[in-house]
Design a protein that fits this description.
This protein is mainly α. The chain contains eight helices and two strands, in the order ββαααααααα. It has a two-stranded antiparallel sheet with strand order 1-2.
Length: 194
């Protein structure tokens, strides 16, 4: 698969392939990327990299992961742009790549304490310090949805803390008997979410 290089509008072949840097062979194909894709990469690459570093703890591995995700996106770019929420599609590709990189590195699996999107909003808000508006834009969600995910995560944390439960049982606690994470608890203050 070709590798996206940030801050360029070109692709390079993987190492060892004809036409890759250092192979000695001239490139056999020149690929011109769509302008919208290049703009997307320039806009999202920095936050994608921060997210991957947060999960992988290694900048080099995070760079490879993000480059691979963006490489996968270019291969399906028309489908991404045709979707109702292109950023949501791209986010799913990134989070899948990050989880795979964690597994292949033998790292602990991503937290199963919260549903995936809730966990991501918590990481972006509290781990990376991003405002709700930026989180919504990068994940392809509405701001209200991000706020809801953060509230549900806060409720799950309070329930786990109040019940003295181990961290691995928070998701079970958050769902509750009715399947609703909000039953029976007062909402957290909105100021803590922004």
């Amino acid at each position: 698969m070709p590798i996206y290089r940030p801050h360029t509008d070109t692709w390079t072949a993987p190492p060892g392939c004809a036409g890759s840097p250092g192979s000695g062979a001239p490139p056999s194909v020149v690929i011109h990327l769509p302008v919208a894709y290049t703009a997307f990469c320039l806009q999202h690459h920095p936050l994608y990299l921060r997210y991957a570093i947060h999960h992988l703890g290694d900048r080099e591995a995070a760079c490879r992961c993000v480059e691979g995700a963006l490489g996968e996106l270019v291969m399906m770019w028309p489908r991404v742009m045709g979707s109702a929420r292109p950023c949501a599609v791209a986010w799913q590709v990134l989070r899948t790549r990050v989880a795979a990189a964690q597994r292949s590195a033998g790292a602990l699996a991503p937290s199963t304490v919260l549903p995936a999107l809730q966990a991501d909003t918590v990481v972006l808000r509290h781990g990376l310090g991003l405002p709700v508006t930026v989180i919504a834009a990068v994940m392809g969600l509405d701001e209200g949805t991000v706020t809801s995910h953060l509230r549900c995560a806060a409720r799950a944390g309070r329930r786990a803390h109040a019940g003295g439960r181990a961290p691995g049982t928070v998701a079970e606690t958050a769902r509750g008997a009715s399947g609703s994470p909000s039953r029976g608890l007062p909402p957290p203050s909105i100021t803590s979410l922004r």
